[in-house]
Amino acid sequence: MKAAPHSRNVPSNSGVTMRSFALRLRKLGERFLWVGSDGAAWWIFELMAEPVRLVVLPPGDSGGFSIGPGQGLLNPDRLLHLAGLLPYDRIDEETLGFDDQGRVRFITVSDSEGVWRRTRWHLDSKTLLPAEIVALAEDDEVLATARLSAYEPIAAQDMPLGAWPQFPRKVYLTLAHDGADVRLFFNRPTARGTGIRPRLFDLEQLMKTFRPGEVEYVSR
Prior knowledge:
- The chain is mainly β.
- The protein has a single domain (2-217), classed as outer membrane lipoprotein receptor (LolB), chain A, CATH 2.50.20.
- The chain has two helices and 13 strands.
- Strands 6-7-8-9-10-11-12-1-2-3-4-5-13 form a 13-stranded mixed β-sheet, with helices on one face.
- It starts with a strand and ends with a strand.
């Protein structure tokens, strides 16, 4: 599976801000999902469905794993969280320490509802970038695991080279209960604002392009 992300108003754990977001996913060279947000809502186009199906979700709907296609794994909030592209939630300071590989380890706690409210982070001790992110239930049962690698800097204007934000080009996701694995390979990142087309983040324009035959609006 290959993913090509686009974002604008790009802060997060790796130094990238995600307000508007578009993610194109291909499998065996064929585009099958378009996941995006304009900051006010999330949407998922299931492009291989007959007819094309669109699911629109409220922002911040990230608890649990039951909303949207793929058993919720590709709910944009959860996907961005597991890819290390969203800011940390509240850190439980009592969990700060090191794991058996010498990586920095701690747990964050979200105020959202649902099964997944706790996340265990493993950061590379040299770069302090997320190497592994684990979604936990209240009893610390593992719900999903993400392994991040192949970080590359995003050239940013008015920032020195050493301060450029880092973007993980490879994210391996595993859902514990379903035994499902998803491997995401992102295209090379770019900070060229002039190269990003506004219509990528415009739901009305995307609906004209993809012409969904079925539309579902998920309310809180």
